[in-house]
Amino acid sequence: MSLAHEALKRLQLGNEAFQRGESKPVDLSSDRIHELFHEGQHPFATVICCSDSRVAPEHIFGVGLGEIFVIRVAGNVIDSVVEASALYGCEHLGTPLLLVMGHTGCGAIAAALEEEALESPLPDQALDEAFHEAFEEAGTESLEKSEVNHLASLLSPIIEAIGHTCDPHEASILNVRSGIARLKAHPALAHLCEDFLEIRGALYHADSGRVEILPE
Ligand SMILES: [Zn+2]
């Protein structure tokens, strides 16, 4: 089993324990803090996920300090800063796995669907229903148009990624796949992929705690 597969398995086992409510206690002692500071970090995976407060990867995967290198940004949007952070995790720290994890009930995805609907001069019934459904699924209120405008830099890449889908679940997966495609096109990351790195996608089901690893 490759190091990347081992890393993925470790995350999956941690998540299964999390779903059963049996997460192992993690060592947060001052001894552990000092040890990590003096010995440095050796995380086994880099995880890119949404900033949503319900999507806390250390809890979801049952890992402690120094175990995963986490990059969080609303909508798990991949931009140049996220790419550089991912490169630090994979190249400098040598994590064999780079996981891009979207989630159900994502407010950023819902807002992107709403933006599409608002941009349409005559929002059709399907789009109108889609964003109300998306916000309902995200567990949040629909945004005002001014709020959507302020989020343009965040929403543009998501809108591009999700195309014309009206389904928030499908949109979340398309957004993950778009992020993976961008990462794989990065020359330095592509080079690492020829060696030891695997880039995979996942969807966190925010209603159940289950992480679904997406097919390659
Ligand atoms: Zn989200």
Report on the structure:
This protein is α/β, with parallel strands linked by helices and 216 residues long. Helices cover 53% and strands 13% of the residues. A five-stranded mixed beta sheet has the order 2-1-3-4-5, with helices on both faces. Helix 5 (107-119) runs antiparallel to helix 6 and helix 5 (107-119) crosses helix 8. The chain starts with a helix and ends with a strand. It binds zinc ion. The site of zinc ion (ZN) has 7 residues, from helix 5.
Strand content: 5-15%
Shape: globular
Total number of helical segments?
10
The assigned CATH architecture of the domain at 3-104 and 199-213 is: 3-Layer(aba) Sandwich
Name the features.
single chain; alpha/beta; Beta-carbonic Anhydrase, Chain A; globular; binds zinc ion
TL;DR?
Helix content is 53%, strand content 13%. It is α/β, with parallel strands linked by helices and 216 residues long. It has a domain at 3-104 and 199-213: Carbonic anhydrase (Beta-carbonic Anhydrase, Chain A, 3-Layer(aba) Sandwich).
